[in-house]
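Data deposition worksheet. Section B asks for the primary sequence of the deposited chain exactly as it was used as input, without tags or linkers unless they were present during the calculation. Section C holds the resulting structure in token form. Section D is free text for depositor observations; keep each observation to a single sentence. Incomplete worksheets are returned to the depositor.
Section A, Depositor: J.P.
Section B:
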Amino acid sequence: MSNKISSVSVSQRLLKVLLSLVLTKPLVRFVFIKFHGYYNQHKMSLLGAFLLPFFVLFLSLFIKLDNNKKREIKHKLQRLYPHVSQPVLTPSNCVRIVLQSIYLALFNTTTTSQQHITIEQRKTWRKITRSARLLRLADSKLVRSFKVLWLVAKKQTKTKSYKAVSRSSIWQNSTLKVAFLTLLIFAVAVFITVPFSIEAQAVFISLILVVAYSLRRVEGQIATIVMITLSVTTSTRYLWWRYTDTLNWGDPLALALGIGLLLAESYAWLVLILGFFQTINPLHRKPIALGKDTANWPTVDIYIPTYNEPLEVVKPTTIAAQSIDWPADKLNIYILDDGKRPEFAEFAKQIGVGYLTRPDNKHAKAGNMNHAMKVTNGDYIAIFDCDHIPARSFLQMTMGQFINDSKVCLVQTPHHFFSADPFERNLKNHRKIPNENMLFYGLIQDGNDMWDATFFCGSCAVLRRSALEEIGGFAVETVTEDAHTALRMQRAGYKTTYINIPQAAGLATDSLSAHVGQRIRWARGMAQIFRLDNPLFGKGLNIAQRLCYLNAMLHFLSGIPRIVFLTAPLALIYFNAQIIYAPFVAIFLYIVPTLLQVKITNSRIQGKYRYSFWGEVYESVLAWYILKPTTVALINPNKGKFNVTEKGGLNKQDHYDWTISKPYIILLLVNVLGMTYGVFRLLFGDSSQTGVLVISMLWASYNVIILGAAVAVAAEAKQVRSSHRIKANFPAAIRLANGRTIKVKITDYSNNGVGLETEHNHLCRVNDKVELLMSRGLKQFSFPTYICNTRDKQLGLTLRDLDLEKQTAFIQCTFSRADAWLDWQENFKHDKPSYSFSHVFYTSIKGFKNLIFHAPNELRPAIAFASRVLYFVASLLPKKPTKVLKTS
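Section C:
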């Protein structure tokens, strides 16, 4: 009733304001009084709003007004109807006037300070503000309490380490430990399995969210563990509810689709639990110093396998390997050329490194390295992909682990990329958003190291030769020979370690298709390991190692579950199949808070290594493509072949990869059509299903956002620079032609150029020849360069015609610097889910724009027509008045 009165009062005010402008004659005033009386008698607010503009137009035909009055009327009408254009009496403007009038009649568009707020509205607003104040107060009190508890625990243990807490005296009493764990398990089981009423579920989940929201600002491992416990409890309770209360046994279609969704959710739950276990306490291993007597240092062979990469890619890696700080008589470098190219052999001879080929290319990279093991004899083997340029400190950082523990067989370092991968390049977020690899190398590998389950990643690593020989060399049964080799060494009782300090950097994949191809190989290889040498059942591994490998293998089986999540809401929209058979309120209270809790916890754990919502984008891009190879590998693990990831390619112009994006364009269209059909059902369908239909549409809307971002990645940006610019910050100098020397700072460099910043304005001009002076330790080097651009205090230099000696010195002074890659994580702040979602949302909009911009010529007329139609429809929709009129 109050809503109706409010609408009536709004219409009344509109009538009084607008018609008072034209009521200047007795006859008109008499007509208005009669009309207004009839209007009040029948309470026809909607009809009044509908007739109002046309009534004003009708009166204007018979009433002569002065120019000032006309301008006043026109000005006020323009403010109420801002999107009505001239001439007014067109069919489209009539529609605009009708819709805008209905909008003005049904909704109060005045500002809070000017509107007549009812007593009930004031009470509601006070309740909301009071609740917000109570929540803020509870949050501050909880944060303060948690910090006090943490300080007490810190004083008792004298350290921040979770291990120290677990080893404190109270935990050494086995009786207390068993009693506490029993009580904890019982409490969690009760919270998971006991059915709650709707009200009880609302209170329970609200309390957990409040605690988690407060804990996110409390530092320390204990707070993280509590948040993980809460997430495990809420997610497991959700899954228990799904299995026990939400299957629609009376509808075969809904039951079949519901079971499919439930299995996908079970997969996601298992991956979530394993991920929490894997990263609950990352090790953060530090390097161990070597003895000062270099005579006791072991011999090391460096393998640089290559197949079809150009010499320009392999050359810097080989030169940088020669610059590694290690006794020359104990270091041997080999180019393992499966391409058997004469220019590679000539280059190896020219710089004095080994060059190895073999009669065949059997077993690809693994076979190449196994052949090299037969003709080399170093105590240890360091492996670099041919595009990974090592820092000179690589062996200094890694070899101490082997000397310290004879059971260590592998030391892995991160794979860092100085070029942007397709996500970073095509979305223009390089060094702004953590790339896809960063979660694994920044967090997961440290977590694996805690459980002695570090994976060998095929490059940037050192292995003990004797351990490799004991297991028969590098594994050749799967296409992921690296992870399989580490698994075999761990089965043999050896330890694998990880040092999270980048000691090499390489080229990321050049295109989305190459990126997808690389991930297909990884996915197929992990599925092959699952079938041929399953870590869950083989001998030699402890439980923690098995769980870490299980999580890695399950990660690459995400194709089917991800597609299920991207299509599940359409079951209700298209087929009226209620796959979650529960009331709307129950669905909301179980799903939304659980997802929020998991997002908050993952945001805390993953921090600056993976921003919220981007994982869904990465999985959506890969889902369709890893589905088939993983399924085939599970059925027939020996089917398929090794594919080499291409590096160093160029894109001569912007283009859209319609082939690679076809699966998610189809999924996007299906979801968009589903939302359109959902709107139709909301307007004309069964009103009893409004709640579940709204949830399905919100879910489909989220899928549209994620798929839109996936579509955006397929717009390949132009890449014509063969050498990638690397940001830097170290001192150097330039010597001008007149002999003057100027101190500068290196801001970036590449294979053939350097960016400088001078302290003062300079008089250098383009094409001037200058000498670039850089140092490595106590040695100083000079490089002939030419100025290619100038801007204020900025200079760009081009390197030209460097001989091999100068090329070697330049790489030693730049790429091989010990501190070259140490800032790889410093560019990223801690994740903020709201910011991440907005970034994904705007990326999704960019994806829709890409589809239009890159559309084939045959489709552009249709897309242009659809765009004009959408624009026209949008122009008809009501708009908020530009300025609210003061009412009496």
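Section D:
The first helix runs from residue 2 to 19.
The longest strand covers residues 779-791.
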